[in-house]
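Dear colleague,

Following up on Tuesday's group meeting, I ran the structure prediction for the two-component complex that the binding team flagged. I've pasted the input sequences exactly as they went in, so you can double-check that nothing got truncated or mislabelled along the way. The structure tokens for the whole assembly follow below. Feel free to forward this to whoever is handling the docking comparison.

Inputs:
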Amino acid sequence: MPSPSNGSIRAALLLALALAAQGPAPAAAADHEGEVVLAGYGGTIEQFMRNDIIPAFQKKTGIKVTLVVGTAFTNYAKVVAARNRPNIDIYWSNELTHVAGKQQGLYEKLDPAVVTHLPDVLEVARDPDGIGVGSYILATGIVYNSQALKEAGIAAPTSWNDLWDPRLKGKVSLYSFGVAYSQDLVALMTRLAGGSEKDARPGIDKIKTLRQSGNLAQFASSPAELDNSLVQGQSWMSVNGSARAYMLKEQGAPIDFAYPKEGAGYFTNYFDVVKNAPHPKAAQVFVDYLISPEAQLLIAKGTVAAPVNRKVQVPEALKGQIPSPEQIPSMVRIDRAEMNRQLDQWAAMWEREIEAGR
Amino acid sequence: MRAASPAAAAVAARIGASAPRPGGPAPAPAAAAPLPRPPRMRRPVVLLLLLPATALFAVFFLMPLAVLALNSFYDYSRMAGIIETFTPRHYQAILGDLYYLEILGRTLRLALLSALAALALGYPIALYLTVAPPAQRAWIILAVLSPLLVSVIVRTFGWLIILGPNGLVDAALGTVGLDVPPLLHTETAVVIGLANVLMPFLVLSVATSLQAIDPAVPLAAATLGASPLRVFLSVTLPLSLPGVVSGLLIVFSLASSSFVTPSLLGGANYKVLSTMIYQQALVLQNWPFAAAFAVTLVLIVFLVLFVQTRAIEGGKYKVVFH
């Protein structure tokens, strides 16, 4: 029966399935490796994966790719649920599920003998333990409606502190905590206030003043909602990844992006090979292709993000839209392990003190 | 949705029980005379017929519910994942935290308001449905069911446009000189969205009850000099109570477990139990805590069902429920 509670049913079912899958199971024998299963993202990413990358890889190697579409979180739930009998070979994780999964031993090391493009990958995009590899690089910074700011006589932002501009009363929006950029904002503001990820209190307090000042008045639970609010001018400034801002700009919206001078956040997603994956060899082969210059160029264009492979010839048109080789080293690397450890508390503080506005 | 199953089963039983009588108006038995009992089915046959439904119910409702309940007592740490020890701490967290209690209260209020709104909108439709000519009836039912024929996302986005800034409501109020803040991201918006999609359940449930009323009874009241209003208040309304109650219960349980409508129309700030389940299960991967929220939701619906049954048993109109 159609109902508005599909989401909750799905979440509940996922739980039930997860538990059912907990029983001990023999690792699936690596029978034929003519295919590989990638759990990735929907939307524009799905389009270029299906239209360009997957056919090219299939043509090159004869390996068939099955794409499981979801978000980083729903796909992670699938990986965790099936940990004793994995059905996914490569999981396109976000930084947090990359670290969380590593801590729980869900991912396999990359095999340098197969993943031969690894030495060409920028140092920042490589995992220190050789588990997984970054897929692209974006910046977490300030996104703003350039037209609205101009009309109000406000200069384009250059610093995180510009969010506190008293002329922006009611005009700052943020993602709710469920979206990674707001989680990163807590870490970035904590750093700005002189703290570290070990204790996010300073960052929470800082963002709280943004709420109390009356500037921060809107929360968006999805990228589409935030885009809408900015494009329609309901809010003038927000915090988001560089890619979405430049995609909107390209479509003609009066949207622009600023790298705050105190440092934009470093944001990436990882390709992780799932431990005991049904097609372990094909998985390594596909990861190698995904970080090859050929695929990296396609991914960089499709995601409007910097490629991780330094051998990619970035087209001029893309250069202004992605973090440059000079900018990347200056971006703030958040301590993901510590953040992952603390995330429950961060969520609780954010919801009570910032969103609920107490 | 699983929370709604008992209620849905109840209404299904009622709809089945009062299928349109064949052969025009049946000879009306005197109100006091016992109805002739249908021939009794033999027990093995009954059991055999019930088997598929029972098996389905056990496998897809009772078992997952048991697993969910068990999981809600497991411990969880972000470093180690789910730890299979017994701990009541998730329930302690829910019941001992004002923030969560507020969400619990908001969920209950939302479900109640949606049920009442659906009743206010749906009862007149159900009433008209019973007197409408048969040719019209099919069209009315189609119109009533139409919200269910559209995907929840599409329908909710429709409301998003209608209720949003510069939307239909905003513009209409603006033309008459009323400058009110947009309805979007308020509780009213969520109630409107839920009442819209859940009303069909209420209409069908009430209409079934109304159709089961022997037409001779209100006629008799009118013959004895009762005004139409009096006939409605003293005869029709009380006799339709079973449908009203089960309709309210269905809407209540579906509204309390709804996710898409509150999150889109209520905005990021309007958190209900299903939002917490999503947040804990997917964003924070704390499945045991999410399970505790889910079990709490199921318990609330059962509690409402229980209270409602007790209220009926002791109520003035208990005779109409038998």
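Residues 66 and 250 of chain A are 31 Å apart (CA to CA).

Cheers,
M.
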